[in-house]
Design brief:
Blueprint (H helix, E strand, L loop, with lengths): L2 H10 L3 H24 L6 H25 L1
Organism: Niabella soli DSM 19437
GO biological process, one term: translation
GO molecular function, one term: structural constituent of ribosome
């Protein structure tokens, strides 16, 4: 199973409040990684890209849930 599929499956069972907390933590971690990368190169610069995609997946899932609740 791909990492994307595992991540999506893992967020489906989590409450909205926990997802919002996870989203904020991910955004903070992204800022720290970007700052560290600006100072000195990271071992794995692709981790920034992966984290950005995870943040987008969480935001998309939250928007889909809010749209489903309104409908």
């Amino acid at each position: 199973m791909s990492k994307k599929k595992e991540f999506v499956d893992s967020i489906k069972g989590v409450s909205v409040e926990d997802l919002k907390i996870q989203l904020e933590q991910s955004k903070q971690r992204l800022k720290k990684l970007e700052f560290a990368h600006a100072i000195s190169p990271l071992e794995n610069p692709m981790s920034i890209r992966a984290l950005r995609k995870d943040i987008a997946r969480i935001e998309t899932f939250l928007k889909q849930n809010s749209a489903a609740v309104k409908a």
